[in-house]
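I have a small job for you when you get a moment. Would you make up a two-line entry for one protein for me to read? No commentary is needed, just the two lines. Write everything out right here, beneath this request.
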Amino acid sequence: MNDTIAAISSSGGPIGLIRVSGERAIEAINAVFQAKNGKPLTEAPSQKLVYGTLTDKSGNVIDCCYAVALHAPHTYTGETMAELQCHGSTAVLCAGLDALFAQGVRQAEAGEFTRRAFLNGKMGLSEAEAVHDLITARTAEAAQNAAAQVMGAVGSPVQQMRDELLGMVAHFHAVVDFPDEDIDPVLFEDAAALLHRTTSRLYSMAESYERGRILREGVPCVILGRPNAGKSTLLNTLLGRERAIVTDIPGTTRDLIEENVKVGQILLRVTDTAGLRNTDDPVEQAGIDRAMAEASASSLILAVFDGSKPISDEDMLVLARSAGHRAIAVVNKVDLPQQLDEKLLKKHFLHIVPLSAKTGDGLDKLLNLIPRTVGLGDGAFDGALITNARQAAALARAAERCEAALYAAQSGMTPDAVVMDAEGAITALGEITGETVTDAVVTRIFSDFCVGK
């Protein structure tokens, strides 16, 4: 990390940002930036914006902008940094970046700024991963959860548990080093209490991943129903615009239509599908086959039934496909005289919502029910939800090893049996903080970042 890196960190808006990090960061920007006050940027106070002009590698002025010098170690990466805040023109930013390359600065790799922050001890690995979640958040709630994790909502408790286990192991090692002395039973009692508390906490954190994944990625949701049940009308009503074609002709929807809908605190990734029925049309059948496959992979099914008609054989296909899934029965067309008998639906669905997709009557009840059905009702997004599969797996392994150590402590096994499993838990927790993670894993994590972050 001795070289100096640069990248466009933000573009496409009114303001664009070029970020530079490394020993020559301020010097490099000073070579392409002339301050209006005539003073070199190398003499500017840290974290103070300086107004001036930016030149390209040929010395031509290409923008009036601000520069700022950021002195180590109080920077994002922990290294000397400098930034140019330009107008957001891609042409200007690229020319400014080329001018820096001419000064011996190299292009930053994906996620290299955050990787340097991690390697320089400015943040733990879980905090660094949360930066990626914050950048890619698609809802305010996901951003709120990620921001809390950037501030240590995951890393801090994990580090605390790891330190406590390290202290316990050190105590046991001291006992093992003096085998002729009697082992105080209080040692095992204290260890059991710590392991019990830690095991419970780790399992709780690991189990939050399913809800955290939904928060970060959204809920894959499929609208199923027989032809003309009102699936496309429901999609349009959820979106608040005409996205799907709606006609009285069966088989109008033949391919999947996918849209994102914000429902309460979650993102619903809704797919409208072809109506389920027996057909001789190979194109329509292909759409039905895709609908079946999409339903199998979904986290939520909105099973739409036409309330103005009795249950049909085609409706039975919808019932069969919804079995075993999180599903809500939507009895549509309540604005028409009702003929559907809900007794059969009550045997298959925990939730039944009558509504009119055409008028919107009853839609609020469905929107309130969806988050609770997928396990994300009202709640504070304080970083407690694990949104990272790697972290969830490490937490689960740590919990299992703590549980094994707890069994050893309570069963009167030798101290080395307790130590072996506790050390396994310590290693797993270190994978989250970054203390025991391999270089290959670190490289893979940061390769998912954008360049400039």
